[in-house]
Amino acid sequence: MYTVANIDFEERRMPRKYKSMFMGELIHSILPDCQKQYAFLIVLSMVQDKLPWIYNIGKELLEMLSSENSIDVKRESINNFRRIMEISFEHPMMREVYMRKKDDYMLMRDMEHMLMELVRALEMEIIG
Description:
The chain is mostly helical and 128 residues long. It is built from 7 helices and no strands. It is globular and about 40 Å long.
């Protein structure tokens, strides 16, 4: 019988590199025919604990992209998300606070690349 403590222990035992490899496989092999919004939400959920503002802003971006707003407003929202991603993942202070362990750093870097790739795909799919 699994309890919450057992599940947490099992998660800690799985190296983070396998989590990002699993996510990459999920996005590129299992979900290629699905809408990119779902893959984007899945990857967002991986950073929700460490960087909750990325999750919240990413969800707002999806809402903006699916709205009736003009293409210029949608492009501006995408560019704002990219800037926030850059600051959150690239700024030395952010790395020091949120990515102190090498495993955390590597996982977050992988998640950043996946999110940016999915944002590009969403931009092409929705805006053209």
